[in-house]
Amino acid sequence: MKRRFYITTMGCQMNENDSDTLAQHLINLGFSPTDDHENADLVMINTCTVREKAQQKAFSLLGRMTALKKRRPEIILGIMGCVAQQGGSNLLKKHPELDLVLGTREIGHISEILNRIEKSSERVAATDLSSNNEIPVINEGYFQGKLKGFISIMEGCNNFCSYCIVPYVRGREKSRSVQYILKQAENLVSQGIREITLLGQNVNSYFSTESGDVNFSKLLYMLSDIKDLLRIRFTTSHPKDLSEDLIQCFGQLPNLCPHIHLPFQSGSNRILKMMNRGYSREDYFGLVNKLREKRPGIAITSDVIVGFPGENDDDFKMTLDLIEKIEFDNLYSFIYSDRKGTIAEKMERKISEDVKLSRLKILQGKQKDITLKKNKMLEGMEQEIFVEGLSKKGDQFNGRTQCNKVVNFSSDINLIGTIAKVKIKRSFVNSLQGVLLNN
């Protein structure tokens, strides 16, 4: 009887990709996936530590899985992702039922690690950030039935923003080879994937020298030539590394979706400097203008932090001003929380939780109005929808525009996996309602 594994994932798309990578390794080792952790022989919790709430959620889940381990001591219980990388062997000391701490760059060594655990009952903390995950893992059929996939083109970050834990838990920047990425992309497309999102802590600083100098823009051109790859997306970009070449790509590559996630974090130059972001609000406005000039209608989404240490009312007003002037399609907004080991953790003049929550509410209300306004501008317009499946209610089809907006519509035939032309009839904050046109 095959051994069974269960993986639960929280956090970013990078974690989702890591879980897929681990799952393929395990299937290749003879395991089979299960949706029921109670019946698993191996349970892995893929964690996030970028924000305090995510870290708390990870430890809460670990507590529940520890109870399972006590009932079934024969299972292997492991934790992976950023919490695992940060905690290392200390997690084994704090949690006696834990068998495995798998670091962010150790997934490729899972076979040897499990062998150590199973043969000698060794408890393992594998957190070497110099480990090489360059060999692509391929499990034919793993992505069958799926339409969207991810490829991690690089790991780590060299920016050391003062609030961010990523460089400490993902290591320094390391770009994967062009051959690795193209092989992964071709394999995904051969299994039916039609949309690929390229992942990295800072994708636009990608650079490989193994097949000549290839930067991120050149990589996009190579990927755009893959037959049957309908759409390409990428995340996340850093404003200071958004090159003219990359901006040009939005006007020249038809399967590069006109959407960019470009975190600005604060509208105040004083706070941006304290964050060590490496650009000014004026720089950010300039980049947005260039993007919109090159690809009119491009969707721009972003991240913003509210309540950074020392943020005063004027700083917050400048953030609101930037939001009003740019009119983002959507914003992911967060209140600042200390991350252990970062520069900002030691900063004084911390903002109270009440003030942070009050500012967040104001900001989110403003962005909600902007998002609805921008969505209403699409009413009456035709949009190309990549049909991904059924809506939540199951009575309509569901897909996304090139600008990554969710659209629901009715059809008498199954259009999943195709591009459908839809006319937008109604708009809401989180989705659009459309009518199928004759294709």
* Major sheet summary line: 6 strands, parallel
Widest β-sheet, arrangement of strands: 2-1-3-4-5-6
Task: Give the percentage of residues in beta strands.
Answer: 15-25%
Query: Approximately how much helix is present in the residues?
Result: 25-40%
Please, what is the average pLDDT? 94
Number of helices: 13
Shape, principal axes of CA atoms: globular
List low-pLDDT spans.
none
Number of strands: 21
Question: Quick gist of this model?
Answer:
With 439 residues, the chain is of the alpha/beta class.
Describe the fold and architecture.
The strands form 6 sheets. A 6-stranded parallel beta sheet has the order 2-1-3-4-5-6, with helices on both faces. The protein starts with a strand and ends with a strand. A hairpin with a 5-residue loop joins strand 11 and strand 12 (214-215). The radius of gyration is 22 Å and the shape is globular. The chain contains 13 helices and 21 strands. It is of the alpha/beta class and 439 residues long. The mean pLDDT is 94.
Task: Name some characteristics of this structure.
439 residues; alpha/beta; six-stranded parallel sheet; five-stranded mixed barrel
